[in-house]
Amino acid sequence: MDISPLQQVRYAYQPKLPPILRQSITSVVPSLGEATQTATDQEAIKALFPNTYGLPRVSFVEGENKDITKRRNIGVILSGGQAPGGHNVISGLYDALQAANPDNTLYGFKGGPSGILEDSYQIIDASFLETFRNTGGFDIIGSGRTKLETEAQFEVCAKVCKSHDITALVIIGGDDSNTNAAVLAEYFLAKGHGIQVIGCPKTIDGDLKNEFIEISFGFDTATKTYSELIGNIERDANSAKKYWHFIKLMGRSASHIALECALETQPNICLISEEVEAKQQSLVSIVDSIAKAVADRAADGNNFGVVLIPEGLVEFIPEIKTLIEEINSLLAKEESTFNAISDSNERIQFVQDRLSSKSKQVFTILPEEIQKQLLMDRDPHGNVQVSRIETDKLLATMVETTLKQMKAEGRYTGKFSSMTHFFGYEGRCAFPTNFDADYCYSLGYNAFLLIGGGLSGYLSSVTNLSQQAEKWNAGGIPITMMMNMEVRHGTNKPVIKKALVELEGKPFQYFAEHRDNWARTTSFTYPGAVQYFGPAEVCDRTTVTLALEQGL
Ligand code: FBP
Asked: What pLDDT, in 10s, does the model give residues 384-393?
């Protein structure tokens, strides 16, 4: 296989670990902290997780660890969307497992959680791993979105693990996958299966975070990749001075990606879904505010600009949120009749006829393409696939219509020409930044130490991340402490609470202080490409969001 020069040199990169994990692996032991509890719904979650609720936080300290050298077989699963650094979680896990005992074996279940159900695996050894170190992607074993959630599935997992003498599973996933990891850990303990389960926080969306999980891996690389592209577009816009660029950014419900990219690139406009919901902004009012910003810039002679749009926006606009909820329950109720209709116009008509009059009104003003996109298949968690809704085109079209109206009324005299973009898949498999390479390797290495400590139902946690790795801490937090009860598919379920952008938080506050200036004047900043070699302040710098959150 031909290998790019960058790939070749990245193979040799040695990721940095927190100082405590740089000791010999037999000289590190877990230290148990205070018992934990959830922020809400304590009684309900305690009742559902009698074996894993209230577990203590764990940190690693120096001490003799004889048990760690016990021979072990461990399984690893990549779950959900790709995020840069997944290969390094596996590298860190493998290196720790080998440091503990060279006879240990790592089983990589293929294609996501379905791999374990189908007993489809790859033995990960040093030579197999060699060409994946410090590279992006999940292609080492593949990923998937199958959910492990039923007792029947848990029993298959136990059977497959026992057949390979696997005594611990590491599940690398987002909030839903780690919720399922917690349920699996509880189940294995309750049934006495003797299989530990440890999670690792993954998702480019950045919505799996709290005090102890400061960032999910992949967010750093993905946002830097998008910011480079946005900066390039800004410079193009400022050179040609003739286009307004509407850029939709991945991130599912949360707007962390859009906010981080805005902090990196200072665009004219960045919508934040959480604010739209808090202010109950309608679609028309959002369009009006963008059109006003376009007109204001045109008055200064600037007929160009950049608008960032979080991909989940439509779900936060009140009237569209209600519309989506109605469509979701309609499609769930009349699934077979709806699926039997093949013609897209008939499908639209079918839904339109069954909507409430208010939602019907909203649905009918949407362009046909958006109507079709709202009716597409749901994801396995029953969510609309927001990455497939072209909000960028929707807003660009509606802004153009509004500007025409404003022109007719003499309120706008500029020229408007728009370009639309969607950045999502471009960033999910990028070469991990030094930060993600180091962080992921540390998460994987740390996961093995949690296993060695006999723990289960924990999420690997590496903290103090806005500092250089020399100051990082390592440990684990019980997954149950991150849970709350939520209604999913009509049933009250324990789930990890999704962390959305906090409007009181420092990153949003910083953005809010500066956005009026960015809207009117051309204040673009150009982050450029991710750098892997050079000064630490350029190459190892993590996100602006994390720096602001940690008061830097
Ligand atoms: P995860 O939550 O599994 O990490 O996936 C995140 C994500 O990249 C979202 O940003 C996006 O909406 C979605 O996956 C796209 O899903 P798919 O890869 O199935 O198209």
From this structure: 787 788 999 9
Q: Which ligand 1 atom minimizes the distance to the CA of 202?
A: 4
Confidence of residue 332 (pLDDT cuts 50, 70, 90): confident
Dihedrals phi, psi of 148, to nearest 5 degrees: -95, 105
CA distance 273 to 289: 15
Q: Tell me if domain 28-205+433-488 and domain 223-249+253-310+390-423+501-552 are identical in fold.
A: yes
pLDDT band at 1 (very low <50, low <70, confident <90, very high): low
* pTM (2 d.p.): 0.95
Q: How far apart are CA 179 and CA 182, in angstroms?
A: 5
pLDDT at 268 > cutoff 90: yes
pLDDT at 42 over 80: yes
Cα gap 57→122, rounded to integer Å:
33
CA of 387 to the centre of ligand 1 (A): 8
> Which residue's CA is the nearest one to ligand 1's atom 14?
81
Amino acid type, 305: G
Is residue 265 pLDDT above 70, yes or no? yes
Residues with C-beta less than 6 Å from any ligand 1 atom: 80-81, 83, 174, 203-205, 250-252, 311, 386-387, 428
| pLDDT tens-digit readout, 71-110 | 999 999 999 999 999 999 999 999 999 999 999 999 999 9
| Test site for ligand 1: of 205, 385, 389, most ligand atoms within 8 A of the Cβ | 205
* Domain 314-386 grouped into CATH 3.40.50.620: no
Which one is the CATH code of 28-205+433-488: 3.40.50.450, 3.30.70.20, 3.40.50.2000, 3.30.565.10? 3.40.50.450
pLDDT score of 382? 67
Rounded Cα–Cα distance for residues 256 and 206 (Å): 6
- In this structure, are strands 166-173 and 73-78 parallel, antiparallel, or unpaired? parallel
In one letter, which amino acid is 400? E
User: In whole angstroms, what is the distance from residue 480 CA to residue 241 CA?
Assistant: 52
Q: Where are the domains of the chain?
A: 28-205+433-488, 223-249+253-310+390-423+501-552, 314-386
pLDDT mean over 480-499: 89
- The amino acid present at 398, given as its one-letter code, is M
| pLDDT category of residue 164 using cuts at 50, 70 and 90 | very high
User: Given this model, what pLDDT does residue 225 score?
Assistant: 98
In order, the DSSP letters of 494-541 are: EEEPP-PPPTTSHHHHHHHHHHHHHHHS-------S---SS-HHHHS-
203, 176 Cβ separation under 8 angstroms:
no
Burial class (CB in 10 A: 0-12, 13-18, 19+), 128: middle
Q: Which CATH class is domain 223-249+253-310+390-423+501-552?
A: alpha beta
